[in-house]
Amino acid sequence: MTNLGGDAILRHLIPLKTSAMIKEELLQLLQYKDLLINLVIRDITVRYKRSVLGFFWTMLHPLINTIVFTIVFSTIFRFGVKDFVIYFLSGYQLWILFSQATILSSRSIIVNGQLLKKVYLPKTVFIFSILFSELLNFAFAMLPLLALVAIIGKGLTLSLLFLPIPLIIMIFFTLGISFLLAAVSVFFYDIIDMYQMLLMPWMYLTPIIYPLDIVPAKFINILKLNPMYYIIDCFRAPIYLGQLPDPMNIFWAGLSALVVFIGGFALFTKLSDEFIFYI
Fold this sequence. Notes:
Blueprint: H1 6-13, H2 16-31, H3 33-48, H4 56-76, H5 84-106, H6 108-111, H7 113-118, H8 124-152, H9 164-187, H10 190-204, H11 217-223, H12 227-241, H13 247-271
């Protein structure tokens, strides 16, 4: 059996035309890497301008929400979840990364419209800059969670070394949704508000706050149609359970992310030449 290189694997998984467009876009991003870095710095600077606590807000915000959800769901509704704080944060942190990145990306082309009218830039650079800035916030927000895992959880086990895999899967899924929203919102601005309204029920349909075993059996299969179910589970298992996730969950998470990424990127590149007439 011959070994497949990275290019061969890409050709097997992604249509040839789409694969070529992805490579071309990545090469362009490398050419504009200085701009990408400056956009990330701009995003971070604007967010924390005149802020006394700065990056500490990225840790404080989820901790405050954790306290509220712990009181409501762990005490009032009495969910039998051991170490509820870790259970909640291990899903919520990843959800925040996804939701913030996609919300900001949905209006990225519109916000930078005047700049795109003046000079040529690879339009994907704005989406990637948002993703990288959110990943930086995510890294800071993960610090208190890992501290809690070490103190009251399963400890810092070797299974944590698996975390980059679900994080990469989440990155591809987030990029796919971001490309889709950014492209469609140029032509239908209402999609931005519609998406933000959708996010809340989407979160509650994902087992972030509650355990899966409280869901009635007849609704389990419906819930498992949600790609975020698999992605969250793959990320949570090493942190909360101290073990690797179910291989089938890894498969479905990866497949969902790949399909969404290809679809979102293909739509974005197909419509990108028309953006200039609508922004």
